TrEMBL record:
InterPro entries: Cyt_c_assmbl_TM_dom, Redoxin, Thioredoxin-like_sf, Thioredoxin_10, Thioredoxin_domain, Thioredoxin_ResA/DsbE_sf. Residues 234-399 form the Thioredoxin domain. This is Cytochrome C biogenesis protein DipZ. PROSITE patterns: THIOREDOXIN_2. It is found in: Cell membrane. It is a multi-pass membrane protein. Keywords: Cell membrane, Cytochrome c-type biogenesis, Membrane, Transmembrane, Transmembrane helix. The chain crosses the membrane at residues 6-28, 40-64, 70-88, 123-147, 159-181.
Length: 574
């Protein structure tokens, strides 16, 4: 329901977005005709076509995108003819002559044919084919949520709801526009000029779409950016984040938060045969939801690892549930390498289909669920921190289960590199996604969705702003460098800067260079670069690029990739 509400209101505000501009001439081309027989069937057909094509693109993959291109060519031809008929009355008379003759045989009212709801629906189908590739950032968010839910039927429903919201706002504009057009016809006798002006607008729209400017230039030039509106809608309908279950007072019994769900949805297991709630009875279980490129997960892993080793002979079973955030985290080889690199020896379930995630109704990375020896969830903790409280919970559940002679004290992992604790700076920069589905703080104009585009960063950035330099193709989850020597610039605050990166499709290593305030980082370099700022991308993972030797502070970071093909996903800070 949350996503449906977001989808509908996101569709309503789409009329303020530049991605709707190429569609408007086609919608208003019939603004002076009865809405029920023209505008309404056209908008319905447009919304349904958009939802179907976008669903195919989201679920079916690249073949649907290519198939839609042929539909676009047909739609462009149809709408070009429509524009010419509006612009050139003699052309309209010539092309409609056979249809008028046929219409005269069927009815004496030739005008009735022109108001056919079926012809209006046909124009709606054509317009929907043109609109589908112009989806705004709110649509990217919806597709991300739909992918997490995993059902194509739900994806279609989300897209249809989004399209319905857009159709409602267009219908209101069309109703108002129709009255304005009728008034102008009566008072000024400007019908013929309006007809020609609409024809010119339709042909201009066809030209813009044929040249690809609808997903390039128009996404970079906005009359009213809807990003802030969309984010407010998300914040308004999203539940407040839950950080942890309240700690019970001494002597107070622990609440029962539910039963340990099935683990059978795991797509693969590491370090263990498949486990189940039945085989775990009698053991205290800590379930840790994580994903290997998440910096918060990485910083909590040393504690989870230490607990697993400290209490494994005293009744504790730790289970890592790897639920991917990015597509590359679904690769078993990548996960296996991460497990080895992080020295994880406890069982890990790959949750590529989010079956275990949904069984827990989980929404966070990392998330820790504490399960007693009877298979009941007794506590949880979301995010980093409160490691002593978590260890106290483990010890309490072990004691309640009858385990004695538990080792004392608290674990002190002494982690280093990216696994070391964050700086604690409350004003550090937020996690920032580069893909258009969740990008915020971009200062280089509008992002061209899925198109190769040459970007130029502004001369100055304010805090938490970032930009691209060079030729990039920005997709929903990541940006890909199309030509060498492209860069990403970020004015950040924090001690540490991390960036999730990956090589191109061929897996060839990619060289890069980092600067801070235009100079080599020196002592402020991270573990994945040297003091001169040089590094190599040899896998899909999180790279620590900055660790300021003298603590947190505001700096201008720039990473320049000497080779093309790099995939850039997300910044995190510490």
């Amino acid at each position: 329901m949350l996503l449906l509400i977001l989808a509908f209101f996101g569709g309503i505000v789409t009329i303020l977005s530049p991605c709707i501009l190429p569609v408007l001439p086609f919608v208003f081309a019939r603004a002076d005709r009865p809405f029920a027989r023209n505008g309404l069937p056209m908008l319905i057909a447009m919304a349904v076509t958009f939802a179907l094509v976008a669903t195919l693109a989201a679920v079916g993959g690249g073949w649907a995108v290519h198939a839609n291109q042929y539909g676009r060519y047909i739609a462009l031809a149809v709408l070009a003819v429509l524009g010419l008929t509006l612009l050139l009355p003699h052309f309209a008379e010539w092309i409609s002559r056979p249809f008028v003759t046929l219409g005269n045989r069927l009815t004496e009212k030739a005008d009735a044919k022109q108001d056919s709801p079926w012809s209006a629906a046909g124009l709606g189908v054509a317009t929907g084919l043109l609109w589908a590739p112009c989806a705004g950032p709110i649509l990217g968010l919806l597709l991300t949520g739909a992918a997490l839910q995993g059902a194509s039927v739900e994806t279609t429903l989300l897209l249809l709801t989004y399209a319905a919201g857009a159709a409602v706002s267009l219908a209101l504009a069309l109703l108002v526009g129709g009255r304005v057009f009728a008034l102008m016809k009566r008072s000024l006798g400007a019908g013929e000029w309006l007809r020609r002006a609409l024809g010119a607008l339709v042909l201009a729209g066809v030209a813009v779409i044929a040249l690809g400017a609808d997903t390039g230039v128009l996404t970079r030039v906005s009359l009213a950016s809807t990003g802030g509106i969309e984010q407010k809608l998300i914040d308004a309908v999203s539940p407040a984040p839950v950080q942890a279950a309240p700690a019970p007072k001494a002597g107070q019994s622990l609440p029962v938060e539910g039963e340990l769900p099935s683990l059978s949805g795991a797509t693969q297991w590491f370090n263990s045969a498949p486990l189940s709630p039945e085989t775990l009875r009698g053991k205290v279980v800590l379930v840790d939801f994580w994903t290997y490129s998440c910096i918060n997960c990485i910083r909590s892993l040393p504690y989870v690892n230490a607990w697993a080793q400290k209490y494994r002979d005293h009744g504790l079973v730790v289970i890592g549930v790897h639920s991917p955030e990015f597509a590359f985290e679904k690769d078993p080889a990548n996960v296996a390498k991460a497990i080895k690199d992080f020295h994880i020896t406890y069982p890990v379930a790959m949750d590529n289909d989010y079956a275990i995630w949904k069984g827990f109704n989980n929404e966070y990375w990392p998330a820790h669920y504490f399960v007693d020896a009877h298979g009941q969830i007794r506590a949880h903790h979301f995010g980093e921190g409160d490691y002593t409280g978590s260890e106290d919970m483990i010890r309490r559940l072990l004691s309640d289960a009858g385990y004695k002679n538990l080792p004392g004290g608290y674990v002190q992992p002494g982690a280093s590199g990216a696994e070391a604790a964050g700086s604690g700076d409350m004003y550090r920069s937020p996690e920032t996604y580069v893909g258009y589905a969740r990008s915020e703080g971009f200062a280089g104009g509008q992002i061209a969705h899925g198109d190769s585009w040459h970007y130029r960063a502004p001369d100055t950035l304010t805090a938490n702003q970032w930009a691209l330099n060079g030729t990039w193709t920005v997709q929903a989850q990541q940006a890909t460098l199309d030509k060498p020597n492209g860069s990403v610039v970020y004015r950040f605050r924090g001690r540490d800067l991390h960036l999730v990166l990956g090589p191109g499709e061929n897996g060839k290593p990619i060289r890069f260079r980092v600067t801070l305030d235009g100079k080599a980082p020196g002592d402020d370099h991270g573990t994945d670069i040297d003091a001169d700022g040089n590094g190599v991308i040899n896998g899909q993972r999180l790279y620590q690029l900055v660790r300021q030797a003298h603590g947190t502070g505001e700096r201008v970071f720039e990473i320049t990739f000497l080779d093309p093909g790099v995939h850039v996903y997300a910044f995190t800070f510490g």
